[in-house]
What we know:
The structure holds 2 protein chains of 2 kinds. By secondary structure, chain A is an alpha/beta fold. Chain A has one domain (2-131). Chain A contains 6 helices and 5 strands. Chain A has a 5-stranded parallel beta sheet, sandwiched between helices. The longest helix of chain A is centred in the first third of the chain and has 13 residues, at 20-32. Chain B is α/β, with parallel strands linked by helices. Chain B has 2 domains: 10-106; 116-281, no CATH class. Helices cover 44% and strands 12% of the residues of chain B. Chain B is built from 11 helices and 9 strands. Chain B is elongated and about 65 Å long. The chains are: A alpha/beta, B alpha/beta. Chains A and B meet through α1, β2, α2 and α4 of A and α1, β3, β4, β6 and β8 of B.
Amino acid sequence: MSEHRPILYCRCAYAKVLPEDVKDLVLERLIDSNVPFESVSDLCEMSARKDPGLVPLSQQAGLRIVACYPRAVKWLFSAAGAAIQTESGQSESGPSKSGESESRKSDAKEPVYIEVLNMRTDTADSVCAKLGIGTKDTAEGAQSQATGVSP
Amino acid sequence: MIATNRERPRVLLYEGAGAEPIDAALRRSIVPKLLDRGYTVTRITQNANLGNLGHNELIILGRFTRPGDFQSAQGDLKIHTRDVRDESLESLIEYIDSIADGVSEARPHWKPWFPVIDYDRCTNCMQCLSFCLFDVYGVNQANQITVQNQTNCKTDCPACSRVCPEVAILFPKYKAGPINGDEVNQDDVRREAMKVDISALLGGDIYSMLKDRSEKAKSRFSKERDDDRALKERQRCLDKLKTNIDGLDIPAEVLSSLPSFDQIQSKAQAAKQRAEQALAGQAQASQAQAGQAQVEVSPKPATS
């Protein structure tokens, strides 16, 4: 399953919060592997400016986000209007105008579960093992949300 | 609110059909470099669809084996292609920056430091709104607390998270848990609860303490007009305040840049008023809802 799931890597470029060796090694192994991935410079910054790009990312089924603490990532997405659900089944969302949480409102929708890998606490080996990279190339992988860029 | 940077191009490392793999050394050097400069970088290794992240321009880098005539279903997306075969890292960065047209340089050097609310824990008590003097918090139409002005937040100051009785305020770039987003355990809740009552801790609230200090200092300034002494007094007060509120972890720069006494008073008053209004509005809405429910379930009165 892991080979087919999209990956989003956060560089946390605007603060020295992630251990440099971990974030560098994970990125290097991602690059050296044959998996497609998405990478952003800083999820916090994207959340602060409510980057609309977080919405399609949050809707990618099976997305694995390589960043920091899952609770932080969940609420960063939520703050940008891109509510996500984690694989543990916890839902998260910000307040809506009606005061009803998005998760409650979207009960009828198919939940999109997202896994968050924590580079603040985990080793690069552990993160890469969860991503299925570092030991062998995983050529499979696909993105969704087509704009259909192709030659 | 920060201006959006949709103008910043997204960079795609293309290694799909019609292209050979990009040199590993170039891949390794260009990706972190671009990320550190604020770009979004995508890598595609096969015929896959590219997610639309809302960018206006896309730069496709690759070692193309046939003319790279890329098309997008996203009508307004401007596509630039560049064969990287004989390019150096520097020339590529220069090329990408030239398309960004100075966006990299124009990017504000702002450490994204702002509170993020964990709504699974937040009870909408409005303590954060009442506490913050910098208008970071606000309420939405449903009278729920929200973070409205992220850039007003004082970098590295996690003070509002310390006054939150539910440990519901995160600063993802903070050094320690649970404020950094680490899971909250019962010890954290107990510890934070002890810190919540700043009034008890300081023998008055934090602003009263500042006010007292400020008044004493003001009086001394007017009597003695001794700048050195005033400065020393201010420093002494701040040191004492820092010691008293050890654990709040408020940077000295924040304490020393607090607004004047009068401004603090009026801001605190305004914030308190907003919090009270929001809570009153919420209580009213709950009452109205309860009333409605009662009407809906009440039996039809008997007719005589």
